[in-house]
Design goal:
The chain has 3 helices and 15 strands. It is mostly beta strands and 209 residues long. The protein has 2 domains: 65 residues; 136 residues, Lipocalin (Beta Barrel), CATH 2.40.128. It has a 4-stranded antiparallel β-sheet, with no helix packed on it. The chain has a 4-stranded antiparallel β-sheet with strand order 8-9-10-11, with no helix packed on it. A 4-stranded antiparallel β-sheet has the order 12-13-14-15, with no helix packed on it. It is elongated and about 70 Å long.
């Protein structure tokens, strides 16, 4: 077993005697979350533990579809700062810093499976907190240092067309972008720029004060 697995221990008639079973859990390298439970855990109770356990020893707990589909950032689609966007049958997000080896990567999921990405940007391409916006068949993404990336959509991936630092020495440039009439507004903590997307043929990035 490469990583320790965590068990939610919520069987109401076993919880008072959890100490009897601890040697077995220790032998197999299992960690426990011992729930406070009287008769059962309801859906909302279980959602409070969502993404924290790999299996359960339980009684008549309400493991609804909503509970079963809940997951931690290490286990599937998640977002820390920006709202994920849908393009066709795929959902795009930048994964949060607690998403394990996929942290801060741009990731694509099919809408039917939000736990297994069909594409990620790779460990050499991490973008912090975003933001990102889809305009026609392009995605514009800004990293924390105000470098703008322009991607072209494929079927379930994107290809980088161009990138450019749009605010020199940008700081915390994770505020949402705004777009209107061919112009894209991007800001960091201190500055804002307006980019003209109408004069480049969607192939390069140019600035406009």
């Amino acid at each position: 077993m490469s990583e320790k697995q965590t068990i939610l221990f919520s069987a109401p008639y076993m919880v008072p005697f959890v100490g009897r079973f601890q040697p077995v859990f220790d032998h197999y390298g299992l960690e426990l979350i011992v729930a406070e439970v009287e008769e059962r855990l309801e859906e909302e109770d279980l959602l409070a533990y969502a993404g924290q356990f790999d299996g359960a020893i339980c009684g008549d707990d309400r493991f609804t579809a909503r509970v079963i589909e809940a997951h931690s950032p290490r286990e599937g689609m998640a977002s820390e700062q920006q709202t994920p966007v849908v393009y066709g049958d795929h959902l795009w997000t930048i994964l949060p810093k607690d998403a394990g080896e996929l942290r801060s990567q741009l990731a694509c999921y099919h809408v039917s499976d939000l736990q297994n990405p069909v594409w990620t940007s790779g460990k050499e391409n991490r973008f912090g907190l975003g933001p990102y916006i889809i305009i026609n068949d392009r995605m514009y993404l800004v990293n924390d240092n105000a470098e703008l990336y322009m991607f072209r959509f494929g079927i379930n991936s994107v290809d980088l067309i161009d990138s450019k630092v749009v605010i020199e020495e940008g700081i915390d440039s994770w505020g949402p972008c705004a777009y209107a009439d061919g112009y894209l507004l991007i800001r960091d903590s201190y500055n804002m720029v307006c980019l003209d997307l109408t004069s480049t043929g969607n192939s390069t990035i140019s600035n406009r004060n």
